[in-house]
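Field reference: sequence -> structure
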Amino acid sequence: MPHDQHIGPTEDELNADFGEVMDSIMQLTPQQSEELTRQTRLATRVGSAEWNLLSGEAAWSGELYRILERSPESGPVHLDELGSLLVAEDQELFAAMVTECVENGLPIDGEFRMGLADGQVRTIHMMGEPLLDINGSTTSVWAVFRDVTELRRRSQRMLRETHALLEHREFAAHKEHRLAIEIQEAVLPPWQHSLQLMSDGPFPLDVSADYLPPASLAMMGGGWHDVHRLPGGDSLLSVGDDLTGRGGHGAISTVAMLLGAMRGMAAGGFMPGRLMTCLNQLLEASAQPSLRNMVCCRYERSTRRLSWARAGQSAPLLFRNGTGQALTPTDGIRLSTSPGAEYEQGEVQLLPGDLLVLYTDGLTRRDAAERPDTDRLLALAPRFAMARGAQDCVQVVAEEFSDQDRRDASVIAALINSGSPGKQEEALKGF
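Structure field:
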């Protein structure tokens, strides 16, 4: 290497960097300048001491006297007496560290609290090193002391503020989850078993539904389902999730009103595609939209035709002759996300013995970014074929997904029966 080659910044570069620093300092406001001065003073409050264990002599720096608020005329405190200046709770730890340093040659590194004459407590960070002779015995101890009182106070204040913020967020999340539960309790059907939706005529529906709770409260997604018998013998089947508790307890009545409007439109002859389009318009006018994702199906018993539309949710599954497949997905974005959106309607002809399964996506995925595991549901086709009814099919689903770390979910199983109608289930009361 040539002898005149320079390593590191040149003098001109250093002068330029120094100029930039000074320019930055000159631009500080008075408050910022005062804070910088205070921080610099805190960072430089460092004192030192040395204790000669052979002669018993001790030497302290002037800053150490100021840190410990002692008069230089009183002289330095010997190492084995220094612990008496600390609060009682810290004296044992200090004595243990000093013993390890003197007897075993280990360094001292710890924080200790010191009670002052005015009743305040000062936190001191001490770092000490033993000086050993040729035999390995400690002859003296040298230490550096730093006043970290203000830093620790600030840390404790930030910790308290962080705890308060976390508690507030936890309370808010718990309140929203509680409201979501109350909304579900308000809109979920009161029955918990299978029922027959039928009137005079063939091909009634054997329907069973269930709400599967999440693995943890934090994974609650607001799953819900609704089953309603319409005038003339048709049936309305709906599932959805993302019921929100935002908007307080008023959201409960809002959701109930929206589901009531959905039933009313269906009773008035609205088919699922038009129904979802009108529901989206209602949600656009709502200050706190409470429905996001759903699937709505209408079963016409006289013709065994199923019409359906979806908003964000996966398509229903159809099981026939021991095999299953998802119905061809229709176009349908989440509700209240696109003003004036129109929802496509799908149709399929059902046969006696067909099984229709509606489910919310929380059943097959843990979060919105994960793709639904539809194949796992379709693989249940052989078990569905052996089921005695819709209620057994729902139980199969619940058992299959019971060990999964998942969100909450709602499931509806609808089995198209053949033959003439029998007596109506007691559970139809109230529908």
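Note: The two ends are 94 Å apart (CA to CA).
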